[in-house]
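This part of the workshop introduces the protein records we will be handling. To make this concrete, we reproduce a full record directly below:
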Amino acid sequence: MTNRPKLVVANRKMNGNLPDNARFLQSVLQETRHHRARYAVCPPHPYLQQAQQLLQHSHVAWGGQNMSRFERGAYTGSVSPLMLKEFGCTYVIIGHSERRLRGHESDESCGERFEAALKAGLTPILCIGETLEEYELGETDLVVVRQLNPVISHVGIQALAKGVIAYEPIWAIGTGKAASPQHAQAILSFIRGHIGLLDEQVAEQITLLYGGSVNPGNAAQLMSMPDVDGGLIGGASLIVEDFIQICQIANELSSLKSAA
């Protein structure tokens, strides 16, 4: 067993309001005290100040759901890495499929933003994963390598270890149809092996997450897999009781690893 602590990240997407956010964040703070696992919340950008106010000096980190590769300029509607840092963000999600599909983000632009995030002192969470058609054609390995390699080209293999990689098959996001634990393990093991061809130490250190319809009913099986270091949680992060259950499962698994 490895000593990589579990990481659970809430991607609350375009959801929430001030009262609901407060209840969610306060519940997570209260129910995850003294945990060994790591936690982070990524709310919509307008609520980052609220997250900063409620989470600062706590064990729960927060981050942005996306960012520009530019620090400033005439980019209406964009958020710069420096802005995220100013609101105390530790993490930022890069390349989520909803941004790739609807925001026309490319593998290359994800590499550029991963690099910009590291430069700003943020920990990028790079999302990679295949469509249903690519999955049925057996092209998952090709897709994740195609999406990962531009990041390695931009930052180098050593710097890759400063980020997090989240495997999120597009056919599992928001569908209620999660990948099987065996499939998630197979792909994350492949990703770790691909990184290991360039640097074995980075491959062993880097945190790999699974995302896509994770819920309290399947989280234990998914996160028990040796290469699944936690989860990027979407829909279940909108129900505080469900998210806390997932956090508790991650903590129990982290405690078992620590004891081993």
Notes: The CA atoms of residues 10 and 41 lie 5 Å apart. The longest helix spans residues 240-259.
